Amino acid sequence: MHDKPRLKFWQIWNMNFGFLGIQFSFGLEQSNMSAIYKYLGADESTLPMLWLAGPVTGLIVQPIIGAMSDGTWSPRFGRRKPYFLVGALMASIGLIAMPFSSSIWMAAGLLWLLDAANNITMEPYRAFVADKLPKEQHSVGFLLQSSFTGLGITLANFTPAILVSLGVLAITDRFENGIPVYTYWAFFIGAGAALTSVLFSVFTTREYEPTAEELEVLKQQKKSVPLFKRIYIDIVEAFRTMPLTMKQLIPVKFFTWFAMFCYWQYITSALSLSLFHTTEQSSEGFSKAQLLTGSLNGTYNIICFMIAFALIPLARKIGARWVHFIALSLGGTGLLMIPYLNNTTVMFYMFNPFGAPVAITTIYLYALGLGMAWASIMAIPYQMLAGSIPKEKTGVYMGIFNMFIVIPMMIEIFFMQFIGYDWLGQNPVNVIRMAGLFLILGAIFTLFIKGKNIVTQ
């Protein structure tokens, strides 16, 4: 077993830089897929089911890739890096092809490809931190990933608006399938970002070679057990011997990711109703709400990027559990505040290099809390988990852990599609209120987590 040396900050930066491109890809999905479906003729009532690709591919792909990468070693490419390369290449192809979709089902099929590719790359990235860093640097590694998550999604959110603001492209320019030209270019830029950032990490970071004993175990496993049978055995065994910390994180993850999926699906309609008193898609108010959603999502991801570094010393001082409790509580409180905020009371003006100064109104206050929550969501649970699982099974456990993200998403899709939206009075503001309460419930369940590795890592 390797005695892992402490790495310098820029070495940790280099190994995690590929996360920027992965999250750029995810950000393009979050901001544009519903619009692409609508350009191709989809009805809003069908949108939740068209989003099933994300949770389903995460549920299937992540634990399989985790188990496969645990059992992989190539003297030339390493253990996790082959999956980074394959996933990044597939994601780039999916991003380039997506704007050329000629039908709803072509776009849906490409989304399945894109989500599978992103999961192939992302799951081993979580294990990569545990592979490379000593326990006392896990928090730095995961919080850097959280920071790159915020930056990547922010760039994805703002790229179309920047292209239009600079006068590079006109907002009215569209191709024959109805998709705007700026969407094409945003996806092309995303494809380049996904591939180049992952290649940068691959070529600047060396993986530790397994010891002779570890290599012998890998060889014997491959000889004695077929690949997919070994994967199945690893996953079943991992569930059977699941660490206590991982079990205690299940309700935290459930309420967190149920809430976030509600937010992404309904925030535009909630803002339209709360601020402009309409949910009519053809109205000017709905268009303003749609633009405001992009700005607010970009803002909370900027907050995520900025606050991620501050969480490192805070987690060391008061413990990861309390950091996560505070962050989720602030995020939930922010969502509960939305009906009481507005876009007319200006707090200050922010410099805009692309045009007139931007008025920052009180509605941006919720993005501050949500950004803090998002920074913690993307890092702290992994930090809690990393110290409680066996090193040689990091990949499969991280894959199973990520199943606790996608299962709540799938439950949310079916619940909101068939029960929840009617139960909440078909009022999107009530959906956001429920999301806020769920984040606070996730925060409360965080306090019940016990374990020697979660206090000060």
Strand content: under 5%
Order of helices and strands: HHHHHHHHHHHHHEEHHHH
Placed side by side, the strands forming the largest sheet appear as 1-2
DSSP strand tally? 2
Radius of gyration: 22 Å
Count of individual domains: 1
Shape: globular
Question: Unreliable runs, pLDDT <50, ≥5 residues?
Answer: 452-457
The N- to C-terminal Cα distance equals: 20 Å
Largest sheet: 2 strands, antiparallel
Give average pLDDT, whole number.
83
| CATH topology category name | Growth Hormone, Chain: A
Question: Structural class per helix/strand content?
Answer: mainly alpha
Question: In the CATH classification, which architecture applies?
Answer: Up-down Bundle
The number of helical elements comes to: 17
Structure description:
With 457 residues, this protein is mainly α. The chain has one domain: MFS general substrate transporter like domains (Growth Hormone, Chain: A), CATH 1.20.1250. 73% of the residues lie in helices and 2% in strands. The chain is built from 17 helices and 2 strands. The chain has a two-stranded antiparallel ribbon. Strand 1 and strand 2 form a beta hairpin. Helix 7 packs antiparallel against helix 8. The C terminus is likely disordered.
